[in-house]
Amino acid sequence: MPFPSRSSGPSTSDRLPGSDRSARSGRPVRSGRSARVRNRAAYLFLTPATVLFLAFLVAPICYAVVLSTRASTVTGGGIGVRVERFVGLRNYRDALSDPELWQSMVRLLWYGLIVVPVMLGCALLFALLLDARRVRAKRFSRIAIFLPYAVPGVVATLLWGFLYLPDISPLHDLFGLVGLAAPDPLGPELVIGAVANIAIWGGTGFNMIVLYTSLRAVPSELYDAARIDGCGEIGLATRIKIPLLVPALVMTGIFSLIATLQVYSEPATLRPLTNTISSTWVPLMKVYRDAFVNGDPYLAAATSVVLALGTLVVSLGLLRVLQDRAFGEER
Amino acid sequence: MSRVSVTTAAGSSRRGGIAAVLPTVALLLGAVYCLIPVVWVVVAATKTPGELFSTFSFLPGTRGGLADNLSQLSGYRSGEFWRWGLNTALYAGVGAGLSVAVSAVAGYALAKYRFPGRTAAFNVLLAGVLVPQITLAIPQYLLLAEVGLTDTYWSVLLPSILSPYGIYLSRIYATAAVPDEMVEAARIDGAGEFRIFTSIAVPTMVPGLVTVFLLQFVAVWTNFLLPYIMLADDRKFPLTVGLFTMLNQGADQPALNTLVITGALLAVIPLIALFLVLQRFWSIDLVSGGVKA
User: Which terminus, N or C, of chain B has the lesser number of Cβ atoms within 10 Å?
Assistant: First the structure.
């Protein structure tokens, strides 16, 4: 439509300054029929998402719960017949009494205690530095730190995994220069840190961008006023910026926690490079082994349900605690 | 105002000395740490298998390793690596494209319509954001096995379309960007609801939808567990699963290591390129969802 103003029929562009028009006529009267038409449209718009939500989120959850209460037993002599039957909470008892699951959970706890604070701490520091005055090389650093987000976990692990090997590691050369034996990142003492480093490397940039986006939304007048009052850059960061970032920090914290609890590809990819990582190193690796190597999807389903419930409880609990604290600070 | 800040800046930098450059140094240290593995993979891809474990990590190979590695990688199981690349582009491109369509229309409905059950729908969606997606992979596999869809392209594509987080973001974009007056005016003019969505809502939501697309594209491109569980036929593998299987074989055949490294380099180049080209869309606001270009 090259000349919208000349077209005789009603067009949307004619109505563009129509805000005052609707203001004059007040709220448009809703007839019962048009409301029904609109509701029908809304439900239609939501149909694809609802179908997918039911098929790939609700149904798997329900199926996992059902599976977790069943088991396959072989009856009859010889080859026998496989029969699936209800066994109540037996799988849960088996899952929770398995020391391998608890060992993997303890490992996951240590891993999470390293990854979440270090990653978010670095992300916060870099976001504040990007937003501060008199800091140089901002554009280059922002791109460089965000770059690992584009590297798949498997590839990141592959790169770091080779860099951890004594024959490749530049640290090995460095320690060799001063005549010391380099620590082995893939040895039993350091391996959790080695996996954590990969996750921190991959996740810091994304969280930095989220926090930085949040910082840039703050009107600069707020800072100008504080500067006139003699507030330095550090004071500005601790007294104004960090409190303003609390909601974004809560969100990044929750998402990091959820990602941490489902860590799988990093340790699984490191396995060919080291003997330190067992096939049940983290809970999800145990779920995979139970379901696909040992052929017991029932036990795997029970473990999955426990993990999902644990994740939900931890993230909702954290959300609550952090929100209370955030509101407390505002008061 | 500007005079005040200029004088304070000059004054403190004269006083500051080392303290004045410390923030820049900290930021650069972070940048260098993030670049180390990327620089290494570029360097290592130029090495021959012999050089990989014998020469200094960050010195490029001198015996024309890159050309050898590339041609050997191309020849690996008659060009399977490139097939994995095409598969990845298909999963990520089609998956993210459909995901944006579903998210945009659902987010728009949640933002602009007052229908019974709206609040409930939104709360269920938020719960979906918190569900750890990966713990769903095994029941998803078993369910798809029931309908005979495992080990097909669909088994990776279909679960990749749903993104509760994408719907959540789209709803925020629609609330912020689509003016109610324009929607009302179009209704008075007799435009249908779907027509209003495509010709008024979508154009104003575009910057936000690009971000939703990019987030989902990267999520699918980097996904490992879902295709790893769903697929058995290596001709349907994406790059992540393909490289993983190559690395596992590399434990027995060290000659494969340089191919895995070259493959890793090739696997990240498209994403890094996408990244640099579409930089201005990488503003991710988790709290209000806004895009500030």
Answer: N
